[in-house]
Amino acid sequence: MTQSIVVVSGGLGVPSTSRMLGDQIGEAARAALAERGIGAGVGTIELRDFAVDITNNMLTRYASPRLAEMIDTVTGADGLVIVSPVFTASVSGLLKSFLDVLDPQALEGMPVVMAATGGSARHSMVLEFVMRPIFSYLRAAIMPTGVFAAPEDWGSDTGGGHLAERAARAGAELAAAIEGAAPTRRREEPMTSLPFEQLLANIRPGA
């Protein structure tokens, strides 16, 4: 069975360093799974493509069909890489808004790598002081290694050196978590509505 790794990028630019970092970690996880004899596909979702849909969902509590499909892709993945640029000592408002429209239980038990990009290494604490509390609240299975990339980490736009090492470590952790969690992670069954007559028949006096 092929496993699914989804990279969710909260980056706003084109090209986006957040997406570049997420793709690097996702590929590292895919390669680590391949070494274990497990096939995996990596897909990337750029939230800027869904900005209007996310905003409308927050205002109306209704997810457009394209947003609902995207959410199903995210929540149905076997592992996630979540990447955000740092804005005002926090994650992007776009990423936070997306997480706000998810069902609070949608990521429970989901293996997640946290990653971020910023203009200075001083912003790296956003991983521990902003992102970790959010995903702890959502009860995701957070990987031990978070990955932060400052401009000097890229090196000719390749993300080599220590950044590549951290991405590989995080990817290997995600691969191990996917291998261990895939058979056991709770999957929500589609909710079905019983006919009204059957609901009435199930009512008993004194219940």
From TrEMBL:
GO molecular function per UniProt: FMN reductase (NADPH) activity
Q: What NCBIfam families does this protein's entry cite?
A: LLM_duo_CE1759
Keywords attached to this Swiss-Prot or TrEMBL record, sorted alphabetically, are: Flavoprotein, FMN, Oxidoreductase
Q: Where is the NADPH-dependent FMN reductase-like domain?
A: 5-154
Key word Cell inner membrane present in the record? no
Please report the name of this protein according to its UniProt entry: FMN reductase
Q: tRNA processing among the record's keywords?
A: no
InterPro entries assigned: CE1759_FMN_reduct, Flavoprotein-like_sf, FMN_Rdtase-like_dom, NAD(P)H-dep_FMN_reductase
> What SUPFAM superfamilies does the record tag this protein with?
Flavoproteins
The EC number on file is: 1.5.1.38
Pfam families, per this entry? FMN_red
